[in-house]
Write a structure and sequence with these properties.
Length: 415
C-alpha cells in the first residue's frame, strides 16, 4: 500500500489515530492481513484501511530504531533509510560537545536525525527535504519528541538560494550541518543501492558549495576510501560506526569537526559508546600462527584499520593471522568490547580427512563453522564432516593463515 497525502490526512485525523491505536493491539502478522483489512473496511475507506495497516506494521518494525515508534509516521523507504536513535544521538553529541547547538539537517527524511539534533537543551534544528510527504511526517515525528525549536522546510538542497534564506529566517546563526544523502535510487520502478558517493542523491560533491563551519555527512559503511580522498584535506576525518557489532555507517567529519584522526565507534543498544582513534605513533601488529586465543574484532575497528591502536589500548601483544584477514590471536584472554574471543584447541592446514581425525581425537561431535577468506560454505563442510552429534561442541574457523587455507578448532565463545 503506497502512502499518499490523502491517506496521511486520514492517519493524522482522530479517526485515523483511533484505527492505529486499535491496530497496535492486534496480531499484525502477514497471515492476519485479510481479517484485519475486513474489520477495518467496515468503518474506513479501503485505501485508508490499507494505509493504517501499513503504518501499524511500520511502527512495529521501527521499534528497533525509535523509542517512540508507536506514535511516529514512516514510509517503508524512509524507515529503511532512517538512522536509529542510539546511533544518531552518538553522532550528534559531537556537535553538542563542540557547542554547535543550531544545526541544519540536510535531507531530513521523516526526521529520524532531526529528532536527535534537537534533543539537547537549547538546541534548534532546521530540517530540510524536498519530499513533501516525508516532511509532513517529520513535522509530526518532531512533535512526538516535543522538539519545539525545530523548523521544517521544503527545499532543494542543491540550490544554494533557499538554504541561505532558511538560515537567515530562523534568526539564529546555523553554522553547522548534518547531511544524509540517499543511498538508494529508483530506476525502472525498482529501488537499488548505490555504492559510489558520486551516485548518492544528491552526490557528495554538493558539500563543496556549502559554507558551514562544521559538518557531518553520513556515508555507507562500505564507502570506498579512495573516493573520499578529494575531501580529506587538512580538515576532514572518517569515523566507522557499528551497533552491537554490526557495521552501520561511516561519517565524514568536515570543517571544524574534521580535526584529528580517523576513528572507530562501537555503540551498544543500551547507549554505551566505545571509541578508538588512529594513533600515528602506534606500532603495527605483527603476524603469527594461532596462539592460545582467537579474536574477531568489531567491524568498525576493522574498517578503520585500527589493529595497532587496539594493541596499545589492550596493553598486550596481539598478532594478525594473515595480512589480508582480520582475525587476531594472542597468548592470553583479555575481555574487550572490541573483540569476540575463542580458545584455540588446535589448528591445521585445511584437509577434510585430517580435520575429521582431529575432531574425533578430541571427542567433538557438534560444530558451528565460521569463515573469513575461505571458499568453503559452512553448511557444505558440516555435511561433509558427517559428525554424529554426540560428544563436545566446537567452533571451526576456516581462514587463511600466512596465505595458507587453514582450519582452526576452537572452544565455545568466551565472555
Ligand atoms: C537517507 S534519507 C534521510 C534520512 C534521515 N536522516 C532520517 O534519519 O530519517 C535522504 C533524504 O534526502 C532527501 N533528498 C534527496 N535529494 C534531495 C534534494 N536535492 N533536496 C532536498 N532533499 C533531498 C530525500 O528526499 C530523503 O528524504
Amino acid at each position: 500500500m503506497t502512502l499518499s497525502h490523502t491517506t496521511l490526512n486520514f492517519l493524522f485525523s482522530d479517526t485515523g489515530r483511533a484505527a492505529l491505536d486499535w491496530l497496535a493491539a492486534q496480531d499484525l502478522s502477514d497471515t492476519n492481513t485479510l481479517p484485519l483489512l475486513n474489520t477495518l473496511r467496515r468503518e474506513y475507506a479501503p485505501d485508508d484501511a490499507g494505509a493504517a495497516l501499513t503504518m501499524a506494521r511500520l511502527r512495529q518494525r521501527a521499534a528497533a530504531k525509535f523509542s517512540r515508534a508507536d506514535q511516529m509516521f514512516f514510509t517503508p523507504d524512509a524507515l529503511e533509510q532512517a538512522s536509529s536513535e542510539v546511533i544518531s544521538y552518538t553522532r550528534i553529541s559531537h556537535f553538542f560537545q563542540s557547542s554547535y547547538l543550531h544545526i541544519v539537517d540536510l535531507g531530513c527524511g521523516i526526521g529520524g536525525d532531526a529528532i536527535m539534533l534537537g534533543s539537547y537543551p537549547g538546541a534548534g534544528v532546521i530540517a530540510v527535504d524536498r519530499d513533501a510527504l516525508r516532511l509532513r511526517m517529520a513535522r509530526a515525528n518532531l512533535a512526538v519528541y516535543d522538539r519545539r525549536w525545530s523548523h521544517v522546510v521544503q527545499a532543494d538542497i542543491t540550490d544554494p538560494l533557499p538554504l541561505q534564506r532558511i538560515r537567515q529566517r530562523a534568526g539564529k546563526e546555523y553554522k553547522a550541518a548534518f547531511f544524509d544523502p540517499a543511498r538508494r535510487v529508483e530506476s525502472g520502478g525498482k529501488k537499488r543501492r548505490v555504492f559510489s558517493v558520486r551516485d548518492y542523491v544528491p552526490p557528495l560533491d554538493v558539500i563543496r558549495q556549502w559554507d558551514f563551519e562544521a559538518m557531518a555527512v553520513k556515508l555507507s559503511p562500505g564507502v570506498k576510501l579512495d573516493e573520499l580522498a578529494p575531501y580529506i584535506q587538512d580538515r576532514a576525518r572518517i569515523e566507522f560506526v557499528s551497533l552491537g557489532g554490526e557495521l552501520k555507517e561511516a561519517v565524514l567529519w568536515y570543517g571544524l569537526l574534521g580535526f584529528g584522526e580517523n576513528s572507530a565507534t562501537r555503540v551498544e543498544a543500551d547507549g554505551r559508546v566505545y571509541a578508538l582513534y588512529r594513533n600515528p605513533g602506534a606500532i603495527s601488529v605483527r603476524l603469527s600462527a594461532p596462539r592460545a586465543y582467537l579474536y574477531e574484532p568489531d567491524p568498525a575497528l576493522i574498517r578503520a584499520g585500527l589493529f595497532a591502536e587496539l594493541k596499545l589500548e589492550l596493553r598486550q601483544q596481539i598478532f594478525l593471522l594473515d595480512p589480508q584477514i582480520a582475525y587476531l590471536t594472542a597468548d592470553s584472554y583479555v575481555p574487550s568490547p572490541w573483540l569476540r574471543a575463542w580458545p584455540v584447541l588446535a589448528w591445521l592446514p585445511f584437509n577434510l580427512k585430517r580435520l575429521r581425525a582431529a575432531l574425533r581425537e578430541r571427542n567433538i561431535g557438534r560444530v558451528t563453522v565460521k569463515k573469513r577468506g575461505s571458499p568453503i560454505l559452512p553448511e557444505d563442510l558440516i555435511r561433509k564432516l558427517k559428525l554424529n552429534g554426540e560428544g563436545d561442541a566446537a567452533v571451526i574457523v576456516l581462514t587463511q593463515i600466512a596465505d595458507q587455507h587453514s582450519a582452526i578448532i576452537c572452544g565455545e565463545m568466551l565472555g
